[in-house]
Amino acid sequence: MTTENLCFQLLKLPVVARNHVLKLFTPVELISLSLTSRHTKSICKTIRGVYQCKKGIETFDVRLNSNRDIRMSFKYFPKCEWVFHFEKEPNRKSLIELGLDRIPSFETLKQWFSRIWYMFRGKHVNDQKTGSMGKSLEGLKFFSWIPVEKTASYGRGAIDPSPFQRHTMTIYSSDNVILPIHKLSLYIADLFNIELTSLALNYTKFNADENRMIMSLFVLSQKNLKLFQLTGITPTDPSKNDVLIQILKNQNTVSTRLLFNPSPKFFFDFNICCQSFKVMDIDYSHWISFKQILEMKTELLYLSRTTLLENDFKVIVQKWRNGWTPYWKIAMIELNEVLNIDSCAEGEDFFQLENQHFVHKDVIRRNWPIELNRFEQPLGTTWGTIIRTGYHILRADGMIASIGVESDRVGWIHIQSPKHARITLSNHLRSYEIIWNQ
């Protein structure tokens, strides 16, 4: 029996059968096969259509914080996460101590890929066919193409805290990790017909030039980046605020979450940003002024740990009742004191809504000329159930705003859409964190 007969010649199968087999490959297996030649890459790219790939992707994230990796999850691989973790290549002495002194370079990998090609195709691959593949990922070193598998979870605050399987590959590079991560992310995006969904950045882990490079490669060059998450320790040197300002100015994502905790003197003018946001979520909002809240150009505004007081919240509510309409549709504001929601709804009369009428706008409008419709409603989420007490306020022009309080000091203002027949309310993890920390 010849060696050729021992090989499973995948690429000689009929197209339909071959594609069915390839759809069973894990992302790591598909990437490794695609690197054998331009031909195999084209095959791997076509096993799922562009529409299927874009609908099948759950996450395709780059993390440049305490972790420096690319993370992927797919709907057709439920409860699995695929991680490409990047490390700077240790020096020779450290490699020997770690037993990693034979980490294969891409040149060595090309020989492996040639063997893979031989197994699937039954003939040796021409080096010219792997040339473009080598150029696309040269400079990266792989210790193993077998991912380390372990059970993980995102913890209590995750939307889905249940455990899942995480498959991690470690990749070494002699260069700064920014360029290698970008290099591999481009390759994955092209192979799977997907776009980067989010970037998590700790700006204090990089110098000014590196931060500019990150923003250029992962934010400004992306058309549909959904989430930008920024963290960092408060700088003691005020001059480092310039780096932070440039990052904020140049990001153009749909949703922005700011987790850094700047000094109280820090200021940023959101009007100079590249674009307005759909979601602005700020974890430490003590530097956000009352005027900025009124003028913030975002649809959904979530402000935790502000310095605002009950009277400030009351002023916002009264401005709306007098005819003012903000740019944002929903605002969550954690005050610096306990919020008495009844004091924010001035009026002699109010109607106490029953739970079954809580979401019906027609019931609220029937109560006119009574403007205030009080409710006390349990809201259930994967984080638990919380009680929100508040009012649906009917304005003379027919607009409805829902104001409420939960966890004593978290105030909500929902400007209800006239297009919807029912009341809608949002929730945020911060309200549950306050309860958990009591």
TrEMBL record:
Domain (F-box) ranges: 7-54
Stored InterPro entries: F-box_dom
Species assigned in the record: Caenorhabditis remanei (Caenorhabditis vulgaris)
Matches recorded under Pfam families: F-box (PF00646)
Protein name, as recorded: F-box domain-containing protein
